[in-house]
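tool=predict chain=A
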Amino acid sequence: MKTKSYILIVFSILISTLCLFIGPEFINPFSISGLDKEILLSIRVPRLLTSLLIGSALGVAGAILQGVLRNPLADPYILGISSGSALFAVFAMTLGSGLTLLSFFSLPFLAFLGAMTTGVIVGLLSFKEGRVVPERLLLAGIGLGFLFSSALILILSLATELNLRRAMLWLFGDLSLADYTYLPVGVLIVTTALLITILKTKALNALALGDDIAFSLGFSPSRERLILFTAASLMTAAAVSLGGIIGFIGLLIPHIVRFSAGSDARILIPLSAITGAAVLCVADTIARTVLSPTELPSGIITALIGAPYFLYLLRKKRMLWE
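tool=predict ok
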C-alpha cells in the first residue's frame, strides 16, 4: 500500500474524531462536563455514527458502480435507487399521513422499501438473454429515475407548506434527526454488503477490464455483476433511508482514492469506505456549525465542496477535455 494511502487513512480517522467535538459549541475533550457528556452521547455520537455509516456506504457503492459499469461518472444515484426511495418517503411525509397502512411503518423503512423496490425493477429490466447487460442496467436506472422524479414533483406540488419544508430538507440530506434507533439495522445491512464486496474485489478488478477479460480469468461477468449490483443497491438503500439524498460522495470519493492509491479494488473499496465516512463527517459538521443555530442539509455542503474539488482533480490530471 502506498504512503499516500496510509496518510489518507490516518487523516480520515483524525478528522472524523475531531468532528465529534466541533459544533455550535466546541467541547473540550480533556475537560468534559456532565452537560457536555449528555450532548455527546445523545446528539453528536449518533449523528457522527450515522454520517460515518452513510459516507462509507455511498463511497463504496460509487466505487462498485464505476467499476461494474466501466463509467467514471457513475454514482449510487444513477440507477434510480434514490428516486424510488425519495418517492416512497416523500409520499409518506406529505400525502400518506392519513393512510392507516402507512402509519404502521417508519420513514426509514419506507425509504428503504422504495430503494430496494427500484433496485429489483432495475435489475429485472437489465436482463437480456439470461445475462445482465451493463448498458440496460444504466438506461433502466436513468429511465426509472426520471419517472419517479416526475411523480415526486407532482406529490410536492400537492403538499402543504409544512410538509413541503420537511420533505425538501430530507431530499437534500438532513441528518438533524439522527439517533440510535435505526443504526443497528443500518450497520448490519452496510457491513454485510461491504463484506460481500470485499470478497468480490478480484471480480470487480476483472469486470473493470471488460467482460471478455473477466471471462478468460474464470469469472462469470453476468453473475458477478448481479452480486455487486445487489451489494451497491443495499448500501445505497440503507444510506438514503437513514439520511436522505446526499450527493457527490459516491461520485467524488472513488476518484480521490484512485488518485492517491490506484485502481486496485482490494485497496479502493476499504479506502473508499474510510474516506467517504470522513468527508461526510466534515460536511455534516460544517452544515450544523456555519450558520448556527440554523442547520443546513448535509447534501448541500457535499455538493458545494465536491463539485469544485472534482473539477480541480479532473483539471490537475488533465482529464477534463480528454
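The chain is about 70% helix and 0% strand. Confidence is low (pLDDT under 50) at residues 98-104.
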